[in-house]
Design a protein that fits this description.
alpha/beta, six-stranded parallel β-sheet, 21 helices, 10% strand, globular, binds adenosine-5'-diphosphate, binds magnesium ion
Length: 454
Amino acid sequence: MSDRLWMSVLGQIELSVSKGNYMTWFKNTRLLKQEGNLFVIGVSSVFIKQTLEKRYAQVICDVLIGNGMSNPVLEFKTSALLAPKKAKEFEDDILSNPVQKSRPTPQNNSNAVSHAYRQGLNEKYTFDNFIVGSGSELAYAACQAVANNPGTKYNPLFLYGGVGIGKTHLIQAIGNALVDKGKGTRIVYATIEQFVQEFLDAIRYKKVGSFAEHYRGADVLIVDDIQFIAGKEKTQEEFFHTFNALHQSNKQIIISSDRKPSDIPTLSDRLKSRFSMGMSIDMQAPDFETRCAILQTKSAVNNVRLPKEVMEYLAQLITSNVRELEGLLNQLLAHCELKNVEPTLDIVSVVFGNQPRLKHVSSKQIIERTARFFQISVDDILSPKRDREIVQPRQIAMYLLRTELNMSFPKIARELGRKDHTTAMHSVEKLEKDIANDAMVQEYVKSIRERLYV
Ligand code: ADP
Ligand code: MG
């Protein structure tokens, strides 16, 4: 069987698996040898070899049989020659272009022009370097569909799910894919926090006109972390008008959130219904296999081969947040490079002890994060004010100081500028009850806690 035939086998496989899976598992495979019904397939890593053996052998056999081979037997061989050649280049590119920079050498004019439209996008987020797993397959497919035909279907596209599972990555990948097509599509990416800030500035400096123009002039508007629009009535109204203006002229809107529209507190009904007009997708955290694939790929980018047991150990340790997973891997790789050692399990226990250190948070960070979550000021939390909008965040901050930092009640009281430690005690007790009885409070605490460690 010739190379050309293998390419056609790959072509057929490409149609039956998702693009991400194809890129991850099949793209760099070669047919090394064929003898009778034995096919020796070269792959770039042990991990790919194992995954192909376990998950895809049948798919490959089916396609071979469809091409007239009988009883095919597969053998996978790792070959260093097949390692993605651009790994190092790719890394250099990321390191030298951390955010919002154009490619160092634009190849042609359209690329140079398109850079002007890469507003707020980070080039490191692409479809190609996203590892698709069962929890993200649908989101990945929908994002690709939108990138191929913006404004035609799935409008708005609303992605929601927990922290660190790749929402920002995917919605930015849509923007980057469109910019790379070089058709001059005007992409505007903003976090909702940015939108709020710019809106408030626009009011303050009497520039609401140009603010509105900026957002309504987008061909594709990408808004990240929309849940933070909670409690911001004026911004909700402005966003509602922006949304309508764009939607009516068939411009694409893409939104991410850590929860579904109906669970965003104080979100106006009309926005809820707008957000549900197109396609909403519940993204799930990556499963174990996908977490392994992510670790494997990210270490390959760093030209490191991660032993299977190390990979599995790390993948078991961090079960939902890919950012934390990357964080651990980076800590490990940095240590190995510094000490010039291989990343073995022994080294893992040296680096992390028995329990890997989660990022340490300070009481200041807890108070700030809580205030930011509820969009009130730290001063409000520390003030004697008794308004409902402030009392509950204050109680939550106290509760988190207790649960996250094991602080004593007198210390908690002092952190919050209170004299009496019984206030702290009652607040924590009250919150424990609220958590037990009120799903919303439970959600608040969970969301803030997750944000503390990213
Ligand atoms: P979210 O917006 O859901 O909180 P991010 O998109 O910021 O999460 O993802 C956190 C980090 O993890 C980013 O660096 C992102 O590139 C990476 N990441 C998340 N999921 C994947 C994945 N499936 N494949 C590759 N990288 C991923
Ligand atoms: Mg995000």
